[in-house]
Amino acid sequence: MEAPDDYFARQLPGMSSNPMMSPVDNPISRVSSLHNPPPELVREALLAQHERWAGTPYRLGGTSRRGIDCSALVQNVFSETFRLELPRSTGEQVQQGTPIARDELQVGDLVFFRPPGRYDHVGIYVGDGYFLHASTSQGVIISELDNSYWQRYYWQARRTLEPTTLALRITEPDQG
């Protein structure tokens, strides 16, 4: 059974003003109506993960609140927040997604560094020039990308998924 041609042009019953029925229930419109565009939802989810992990010390090979390394933090955050499974090591994570220029960074992008020593470093861009990571000296923190140290050792950035896609994949904390 098809709807009559004028179905979507009809006034809603019992409404005194002039609202019309909508042909589509669009969840993206609902997000926009909350004045919470997808990148902001991703940022809020990442900042919530920072609160959850803040104070966790750095431990090479660590994967828990007792101690975690940079790639395990990224792996955990992406799994818990966006239901996206990333590989365990920085060397494998740097092969995920597509490379992007530093001036094209968006919330949720992975940022990679090559500091002195044996290991590369990874974090998650949270916007406004900041990234979330597990620092070897301070544990899980948010650092400024333009800090002279991070600026000196910046290597590359990669986008696993577009921020709008990440926003659609955000899981509620109560879901496990």
Description:
The protein has 176 residues and is of the alpha+beta class. The protein starts with 26 loop residues before the first helix and ends in an 8-residue tail after the last helix. A hairpin with a 2-residue loop joins strand 1 (63-64) and strand 2. The model is unreliable at 19-33 (pLDDT under 50). Helix content is 30%, strand content 20%. The strands form two sheets. It has a six-stranded antiparallel β-sheet with strand order 3-8-4-5-6-7. Strands 1-2 form a two-stranded antiparallel ribbon.
Short description:
With 176 residues, this protein is α+β, with helices and mostly antiparallel strands.
Distance between the first and last residues' Cα: 42 Å
Radius of gyration: 21 Å
Estimate the helix proportion, in percent.
25-40%
Q: Segments where pLDDT lies below 50 for 5+ residues?
A: 19-33
By DSSP, the count of extended strands is: 8
Helix and strand composition category: alpha+beta
Average pLDDT: 85
Give the SSE order as H and E letters. Answer: HHEEHHEEEEEHEH
What shape does the CA trace take? globular
So how many helices? 6
Please give the order of strands in the largest beta sheet: 3-8-4-5-6-7
Strand content: 15-25%
Please give the largest β-sheet: 6 strands, antiparallel
Topology (elements, then pairings):
Blueprint: H1 27-33, H2 38-53, E1 63-64, E2 67-68, H3 70-82, H4 90-93, E3 98-100, E4 110-113, E5 121-127, E6 130-135, E7 139-144, H5 148-153, E8 154-159, H6 163-168
Antiparallel strand pairs: 1-2, 3-8, 4-5, 4-8, 5-6, 6-7
